[in-house]
Structures are given as structure tokens and as C-alpha cells.
Amino acid sequence: MIIAVLSGFFFAIIALLSGKPIRKNMGWIPALLPLTLFIYFFSLLPALASGPLRFKYEWVPSMGVNADMKLDGLSMLFCLLITGIGTGVFLYASYYLKGHQYLNRFFCYLSIFMAAMLGMVLADNLVLLFVFWELTSISSFFLIGFNNEEKISRRNALMALTITGAGGFLLMAGCILIGSASGTYSINSLLASAGNLQQHTLYGWMLLFIFAGAFTKSAQFPFHFWLPGAMVAPTPVSAYLHSATMVKAGIYLLARFTPILGHTAPWNITLMIVGGITMLYSAFHSLQRTDLKEILAYSTIAALGILVFLLGVGTDAALLAAAAFILVHALYKAALFMVAGILDHETGTRHVGLLRGLGKVMWPVATAGLLAALSSAGVPLTYGFIGKDLIYEATLHAPSFAVLLTAVAVLTNIFVLYAGFQAGIRPFAGELPQQYRQLHLPGWRLWIPPLVLALLGVVFGLLPSLTDEALIRQVYTSIGGQGTLPPLKIWHGFNTVLLLSGITLVAGCLLYFLYAPSAAFRPLTDKWQHFSPEAITIKCSRAFLKFSNWYTNLFHSGYLRAYVSIIIIFITCLLGLKLVLDVKVYFDIKTNISGIRLYDAVVFAIILAAIWKSVSTSSRINAVASLSVVGYCICLLFVIYSAPDLAMTQFTIDTLTVVLFVLVLFRLPPFLKINDRKVILRDAVLAALFGAVISIIALEAMNEPTTKEISRFYAENAYVMAKGKNVVNVMLVDFRGFDTLVEITVLTIAALGVYSLMKLRVNSTTKE
Amino acid sequence: MELLLLILIGILYATGIFMMLRRSMVKLLIGLILLGNGANMLIFLLGGITRGKPPIIGETDKVLTGVYADPVPQSLILTAIVISFGLQAFAIVLLKRVHALIQTDDLNDLNTPDTSI
């Protein structure tokens, strides 16, 4: 099983490396991969009747994260869709993008996507599910942005990634929350203890996070807008990702969690409301589009809305309807997308107003379009009819608001029918315009896949028992359906459901004949464009960019003193706060003070004066001279307080520094005359505060008793072990000899630097 | 005397930072040196100061006994002084080169702040 999932990733690498053969004539070869997988999953179908198949793989057992896989009805339905439609799409794409210079890359992305999708629906572990979930988002990003030379492609790909990525992030939070609340990441264990999480205090948050993930991925209102934008992808991608598989990942997630989190009022009501709004909103929008793919995109969103809505209704009948409708929709919508792609490929336009009478030149395509459109309309004897029957059955017997729910469903179905007819029938009917007369049927790889899918829609419609027990019931059980419901039938007899179907058909056909798709209403809806979720998202991201720009510039002015100021302000505030809040400052006179003698006071006074002079003077020589006075005074302090070595070093170094300074400064201009009082005052206050903080910290440190263990060791061993009487010297050259060696190295490097800078001859005019 | 040294350290730190916030490169260097002195004094003070008892073993003794100045901070400071001299020397020469190139002491003239994105 894990090989089946990972084979897509392996193949992706092979596809990437074998660009030439794929571009030449071997384009059909990649289609063998999904075909093989399809046969593999299909062969497992009978085994499913005796319960889900489980596959155990260890990954990170210490954290309860395992790469376990589980194949139950729901996973099986998705696996078959992914590999089955995948076969068609791979074949279709090999012709659709024939000769494209990046065809190998395309198949690489597509295989990654397929593998990720398979992994996601098979994963029996929340963490694993999340990983694959994100992989589908990422591969989708590359596929949407496949025409990466176009700005709109890049923009829409980014938009899709942003929305689904944000949802994925929240989904991760949800997974972790559920994992830690229930103590297990295994979906199977969660199912076994279903019902416990509903009572958890954080149940609301779990719902919120799971919904965020599902709604963004499945393009539910108000996150729907990325899906029409994603139509810039090549048509095979739209058929595969954005109608049949990836956008159903959210549905999969909701269906998967229905037994675990569902059947509560918040779950049902949220899903019903969101699904309902999405259905109506996008069905209405599909009326105003004239681009074939956009019409289909909106009707896809409507169908996704129906699925969410059905899961929200949550009765057994609704779950069965959802299970069947996933298959129904995937079959006809993928076919319609492929048909739209063929039209685009052959005529170069997707505008419904321009495409007429093409049935005369490409009748198999027209057949595919017609059958798919009929299935989407729910005409009797098609699979769509059965799907729609089940939906009406579910809404009519909903526990509450049955009439309202049914009305919403009927209205949406009318619009879906309309969209299906626009894409599947209108381009093939009527007179053939002059400019399309020389068109002929494209290669079989382009029209066989949609025809097969559309035909399946009819076959399943005529013989519903083919799918019923083997697949749909399995899905129904795995998403928590318990009661036994009548089997799928072609004919239910005369009842309310049939009446509703009739109303849908008649109203839809009337709409089709009376209202030609046009952008007439667009100005009306465009007025609201500023308040649309898309506009708000774009505004937010712009504002965020602006903010981060401002924020970066605030801290990165490029001036050294600004950086120093920020660091000092931060340290001062942090330490100052701590000192004010927690530390009692006191000065322990008894233990810590030694008397102040006259020469101490004199030295101190000299230092203060010298510091003041070096800061305030406007002459460089004065400043350097004062600096040297400070150094020599410190040298004196060292002498007084028993540090002769320090005094000698300080004396030498200070002298050298001053000499060097004077040598260099000789050529420098005088100090800049910058006397901005405000700035000086600000810096002075900051510096004074910082100095005060340091002093107080030093005071606090002095109040703590120090241990003299280390000093004692050196004092006792300096002569005994190292034969030296000057303890400081012995430490530096003997006990810590290597440190001193490194120090010498540092000095050497500095000396080399100084030497080379001195010797470097730079012509100031040419180098500038 | 510790009290005076505490104040001295505070002042050295404060003036060091103050000078580093100036626009002149020379002042920046002066600030750096003052700050270095402050840090040395801080270590010196926190090690405990002792008058007139250097950590040198007497002619006839084998170990240091009685009250003596702590040798550990002293060797630390000694290292610090030498290293900071390396830094100062390099910085001073660098300053000279920069001045030779752009004929100014103003740090602002060295700037190429990141332009907005």
C-alpha cells in the first residue's frame, strides 16, 4: 500500500529527468501509472465488503505518529476517483500540452499531486493526513502557476496557496488539538471512541479549526474566490484538481470527521448555513459568466456547497446522498471540463457566445458533452438523476426546515443544470460559423477520456446496482451511516421527489432557452466588488506588506547609532523593569566599604574631569589627551589596589593608543559641528539611564558573597606546580597558556590588518 | 572607595554609550575606549579590591597566604586590555583609510540605507 502511495513521488523524479522522451512521442507513458494504481485499487474492492483494510507502518512511534494506512469505503471511492480520473487526465494532458517545453515538469507536478492525494485519503493518522494535505496544496500551487510567464497565473497561484495554506495551518492546529484532547492521533482509534470529543470543553475550537481547513480547501463561501482564479491552470489541471479531486479534499475531511465530531447542533447548523450560502451564491454567479471554465468553476463551487450542505443535514439519507453525489459530480464535471478544454484547444476561445454548432465537426466530443450535461441536469436514466433524487429525498425528510432546505436545493440544481447545458450542449448546437468549418476531430487521447467518463455516468444511471452495494454503501457506512436505506433505483415511482425533479428540469430548460449567458448583470455585482472576500483578502495582504515594510524600516535605518540606541533602550528597559520590580537596592556599608583616602578622591576627581573634557571638547587633540588621562588614572587605581601587572599593561597600551591616535588624527578634519540640543539631551538621558542600570547591577553583584575557590587554587599552586612567584603571570603563561596563545594570534591578525591597511595604496579619485 | 568606583563605572559606561551615539567616527572610537575601560573596572571591582597586597608570592614563601588581591579578575582584565588594544589599533587605522577615501568624519556619509522594497 505504501508503495502505491509513494510510487507517484518516485515517478515524479523520473518524469522530471526524462524530459526529452516525454516531449517527443512517449507522452502517453505517464498515464500507465494511474492506470496501474486504478487496477490495483479496483482489485481490492471486493475485499472491502468484509470491513476496512488496514496497513501498519511505523514512522515516529515514540510520538504516536505512524504512517498507518486504512482503506475503507470513503478512501476507496476517492482512490478510484483519483486514479481513474487521473488516468484520463494524464492521457488527456499528454495530447493537450503536446510539445510543451515543460511537459515533463507538468507530469512531475501531476504525479506528486496524485501521490499526495492518495496518501491523504488513505492516511489513518492525523499528522500523516496533514502532511499529505499540505503536499496537495503545494503541488496545486505549481499546477495553477504552470504558465508561469503570465502575471495572472502567478498571482492566482499565490492566492490559492495563501488561502489553502492558511486553512492548512489551522487544520494543523485542529489536528494537534484533537490529538492531545483524545490522546491519540490515529483516526481509527478516534472512530472507535467516537462521541467522546463532543463533550470536550475545547470542542468549539476543534470544529473551528477543522472547518477552516475544509472550507478553504473546498472553496466554501467566503473562501470560494481562489477556485475561479485557479482556472488559469491548463484545463487538465482544472478537470483533475479543481473539480474532481483536490477541492473534494475538504469534503473528504468533513466526511471523515462526521462520525468523530459530527451529529451535534453546531456541526450541523454551521455546515448547512455555509453550504447553503455557497450553493446559492456561486450558482447565481455562474449565470453571469461567459467563459466556459468560469461557468464550470462556479458550478463546481455550487456542487461542493451541496456536499457540505448534505453533510450538514447529517441524516442517514443525506449521508447516502453525499456519498453518491461525490461520484456523480466527479464523473460529469471532469467530463465537462475536458470538453471545455477541447473546445479551447481547437478553437482558441472559451467564450460561450462565440462557440456554436461544433457538434457537426466533432461529434464524439459533442456526445460526451451532451451526456455529461444530461447527467449534471439529472435527467432520468442518468446517474445524475439518482444523485439528485437522493438529495431531494434527504432534504424533504430533514428533521427541521425541510421546506426551506428543499427550496435551496431545487434552486441550486436549476442553476447547476443551466451551467451544465451551457458547457455541454450550447457550443455544439445551432449553425456552424464559417471560421470553424475547417476544424476536425482532435486526437483520440483528447476525446476518449471525457467520453468514457460521460458514458460511465449513463451506465451507472441505467444500472445503479453496479455501484450501490460495492461502493456507495461502503462509503455510507464509513462516514457513519447506520440505518438501512432502500437500494439505489432508476425509478422510484410517482412521488414528491419526482415532482421536484420535474420542476428542476423544466425550470432549468426554460432558463437555458430564455436567458443567454451574458455579462449584463456584471456591473451590478461589480459594485459590491469592494466588499467581496477576495478584495478584502487582497487589501489585507497589501496592508500587511506595507506594515512589514514600515516595521523593517523602523528598525533598519542603516545608521549605526540607531541600532546601538535600540539595543541600549531595550536592555535598559528590560533590566530597569526587573530592578524596579524585584530588586531591593541597598548598600551594605559594613562589609563592602573601605575608607576613602585622600589620593583616592583626587584620582577620582581627575578622572571625572578628564572624562568630561573628552566628551565636551571640540578639539580632537584635547579629546585624545583627556582620554589618555583617564587611562593613566585607571592605571593609578590599579597600582593602588594591588594590580601591578595591570598597571604596567594599561600604561603601555594607553601610551601606544594615544601615539597611534595622534599620528592618524593629524590628518583628520575637526569635529563636525552638530549641536542639536534635542538629540544630545535624548542621548544623554539614555546613556545616563544605562550607566545607572550598570552601576546598580554592579552594586547588587557586590552584595552577593563571592567564592574564592579558584583564586585559592592558583594562590596555592602557582609556585608549587609552576615555579612562579607572580600569580597573575603564572596564570597567563602557564595554567591558561593556550588562551594566551590564542590571544597572541588575535593580536597578530589585528597587526596584519593594521599593516596591510597602512600599506594599501588607494587612489582616492578612482576608487570612489 | 567601592562607592566611588561604582559611580565611576556608571559614568564610564554612560559616556561611552553617549559618545557612540555621535555622528563623528572619532567620537565613536573614543566611546569604544571609554566603554572598554568601564568594563575593565567593572570586572576589577566585582572581583573585590584590596589595597597594597598584590598577588605575588613572597621571597621565602611557597604559597600565597593571608589577605591578597584576587589574581583571577586581574588576568581576565589583562587579556581584555590587550585584546581591546588590538581592536582600537585596527579601528584607528581603518578610520584613517576611510577618511582617505571619502574625506569625511561623518558616519552618515558612509550610509547606504536599505531602500524600501
TrEMBL record, chain A:
Domain MrpA C-terminal/MbhE residue range list: 681-759
Coarse class of the protein's main subcellular location: membrane
Source species: Chitinophaga terrae (ex Kim and Jung 2007)
Keywords tagged on the record: Antiport, Cell membrane, Ion transport, Membrane, Transmembrane, Transmembrane helix, Transport
Pfam families: MbhD, MbhE, Proton_antipo_M, Proton_antipo_N
Residue ranges of every copy of the MrpA C-terminal/MbhD domain listed in the record: 606-669
Taxonomic path: Bacteria, Pseudomonadati, Bacteroidota, Chitinophagia, Chitinophagales
Membrane topology of the entry: Multi-pass membrane protein
Location(s), subcellular: Cell membrane; Membrane
GO BP, sorted A to Z: monoatomic ion transport
GO molecular function list: antiporter activity
Domain NADH:quinone oxidoreductase/Mrp antiporter transmembrane: from-to ranges: 123-406
Keyword Ion transport appears in the UniProt entry: yes
Domain NADH-Ubiquinone oxidoreductase (complex I) chain 5 N-terminal: 62-107
Protein name: Multisubunit sodium/proton antiporter, MrpA subunit (TC 2.A.63.1)
Cell membrane as UniProt keyword: yes
Ranges annotated as spanning the membrane: 29-53, 74-97, 109-136, 157-182, 202-227, 265-283, 295-313, 319-343, 363-386, 398-421, 442-463, 494-515, 562-581, 593-612, 624-643, 649-668, 680-699, 740-758
A GO CC term assigned to this protein in UniProt: plasma membrane
TrEMBL record, chain B:
PANTHER family: ANTIPORTER SUBUNIT MNHC2-RELATED
Membrane-topology descriptor: Multi-pass membrane protein
Main location (coarse class): membrane
Listed GO CC annotations: plasma membrane
Species whose genome carries this gene: Chitinophaga terrae (ex Kim and Jung 2007)
Transmembrane segments annotated in the record for this chain: 6-21, 28-49, 76-95
Family: Belongs to the CPA3 antiporters (TC 2.A.63) subunit C family.
Keywords assigned by UniProt, alphabetized: Cell membrane, Membrane, Transmembrane, Transmembrane helix
Pfam families, per database record: Oxidored_q2
UniProt superkingdom: Bacteria
Stored InterPro entries: CPA3_antiporter_subunitC (IPR050601), NUOK/Mnh_C1-like (IPR039428)
Location relative to the cell: Cell membrane
Protein name per the record: Multicomponent Na+:H+ antiporter subunit C
